[in-house]
UniProtKB/TrEMBL annotation:
Catalyzes hydrolysis of the D-alanyl-D-alanine dipeptide. It comes from Flavobacterium sufflavum. This is D-alanyl-D-alanine dipeptidase. The active site is at 197 (proton donor/acceptor). The record marks 106 as: Transition state stabilizer. The lineage of its organism: Bacteria, Pseudomonadati, Bacteroidota, Flavobacteriia, Flavobacteriales.
Amino acid sequence: MIITLKKISLILFLVVFLSCKSQITAISTSKEIPSSIGDTTFVNLKDYSSDFVYDMKYATDDNFLKAKVYDCAECYLRLKTVRALVVANQEFIKKGYRIKLFDCYRPLDIQKKMWEIVPNPEYVADPAKGSIHNRGGAVDITLVNKRGRELDMGTKFDFFGIEASHAYENLSQKVKDNRMLLKSIMLENGFNSFDSEWWHYNLKSALMDVVSNEKWKCN
Ligand SMILES: [Zn+2]
């Protein structure tokens, strides 16, 4: 009788233990509960919004490196960057536009390759300090209209010249308006602009986050 009770206790213990374990596993793999993960966790933007347009230049050879340096076209950022970006995009959508992304989080090794080609801190951050891209807090973006056409911003993405600067005056009013539309809503949503590149925005609170060299999974 004593042995039987022990056996029943053991079975009950195993049932409770295994059911708890399966619940824990289910919660930790869910991406539907953002509050369960930390603000600085790296996440994939597409898991939080389907309202963005992607043209991830470094997953192709259409970039100044002339090389495909990402294995796949994913936009990883820290969760707090994703939150701010989703709100900014909602503002653009109300006005008939949406954000198109050229680059997001960038592993430090890629930063080193960029610095070898363009060792100029006006255009590429020195990998010794690390870019905000390496911290998961920067995005390179433009705006597209309802037909998916990019607004005229005066230069292409990654144009390394004075014409890409916010301070450059010799631009049409339309280009100035387009740049100002992008800049004003990004600044209202926690981002800083970068003087020499109209496409680059940093989340203000990302400066203190650590540089990373983690690669994301492609599948
Ligand atoms: Zn950038």
